[in-house]
Amino acid sequence: MSKSTREITKSPKKRPTVTGDPVLVRVQPDMAKELDDWRRKQDDLPGRPEAIRRLVELGLKAKAK
User: Which of 9, 11, 26, 46 could form a disulfide with 50 if both were Cys (CB 3.0 to 4.6 A apart)?
Assistant: First the structure.
């Protein structure tokens, strides 16, 4: 009998190329819902951490103007 082999490949995770300082953020259920609603409107449906990074970046850019 010959052994069957399965090739297991994992798709690369979409993570930022540069690592940074980890930050733990707790959000209340109503804010989590707003965050999830915003994420669903994005073309690529980012995860919560990526969505938070994008919103922080948008907020910082708006503050700079």
Answer: 46
